[in-house]
């Protein structure tokens, strides 16, 4: 059993002060490029890796997860560093959001740190290479030894140029192109950064979307990713439809557009994540678990091992991190998985 964690003191005491003095998106790009390069060096992955311990294997929606902590969507949008996520100790990774048409996203700057609150605001707008290009690249990797043994989720969204009324067929294009790549799929209808996208969570639109994908789905677990800003009526509507169309679960939640909890001078257009999202995300988890039996991937404001434990105590099957990983680095992965192992989760 390997449990070494060489990156623990290094990130927070040395790397983070340097990284946090630079532009957040630039740091992100350098991180992805570095991890992508590392992903092609097996011996280095092995040095980093501590994935030999599988004592807390977990089965959720028919997939085996070596541990229940995942990297949330948006970090590795194009699936550039899959082996690295496994080596860092994640139990699964969700790539994307991927859209049918490649797109550059919104003008920069579009990612902002709020250091004192351990929060981020982003308005990236689904910058990604597009389903076709990603499917070709990952398709070549999929059968090879470098492909990670952890489940890979694929999060899909609407191309910006496609009108909302044609959203279902646009999602379907991505789904069909990527069906052979992902172990599970997530319909992202909750990003605040594609105009009108969140409207897909309402009324007939969500029914049309679920129907379009499930009619073509040959058996891949399909989940829906929701916003933390839904009122209970909207949430119940989605849960009922998720049941009706036999979705495998819910990813709760995306970023919030409610920025009242942060000081006025820090507010910006975009979605807020990290510590200020914790209570909202937990509240949504409680609501889902009270009103539905669907499995939940809980995400939003998980900044330490206690936060993760709280989500499992509230009934989450799996959890994901994004902003916590930015602020705490690989240490957080180690901290959460170690504490789960000790508690025998
Ligand atoms: C910079 C950034 C980019 C994101 N991009 C995506 C995305 O493309 N698709 C998606 O479903 N969620 C995206 N998210 C949302 C995260 O996956 C997650 O749901 C949210 O940040 C809450 O988790 P956290 O508080 O741990 O960050 C993004 C978040 C951030 C901070």
Secondary structure elements and their pairing?
Layout: H1 8-19, H2 24-38, H3 42-48, E1 58-60, E2 63-65, E3 69-71, H4 82-87, E4 92-98, E5 111-114, E6 119-122, H5 131-142, E7 152-156, H6 167-178, E8 184-188, H7 203-216, E9 222-226, H8 232-244, E10 249-252, E11 271-274, H9 278-291, E12 296-299, H10 305-313, E13 318-321, H11 323-328, H12 330-343
Parallel strand pairs: 3-4, 3-13, 4-7, 7-8, 8-9, 9-10, 10-12, 12-13
Antiparallel strand pairs: 1-2, 5-6, 6-11
The structure holds flavin mononucleotide.
Flavin mononucleotide (FMN) binds next to strand 4, strand 6, strand 11 and helix 11.
As laid out across the biggest beta sheet, the strand order is: 3-4-7-8-9-10-12-13
What CATH architecture do you see? Alpha-Beta Barrel
Unreliable stretches covering 5 or more consecutive residues: none
CATH class: Alpha Beta
Number of helices: 12
What's the main sheet like?
A: 8 strands, parallel, barrel
Which molecules are bound in this entry? flavin mononucleotide
Distance between the termini: 18 Å
Q: What structural class is derived from the secondary structure elements?
A: alpha/beta
CATH topology-level fold name: TIM Barrel
The arrangement of helices and strands along the chain is: HHHEEEHEEEHEHEHEHEEHEHEHH
**Rg over alpha carbons:** 19 Å
**Quick one: how many beta strands?**
13
Task: Name the beta content range.
Answer: 15-25%
- Helix share bin: 25-40%
Q: Give the CA-based shape.
A: globular
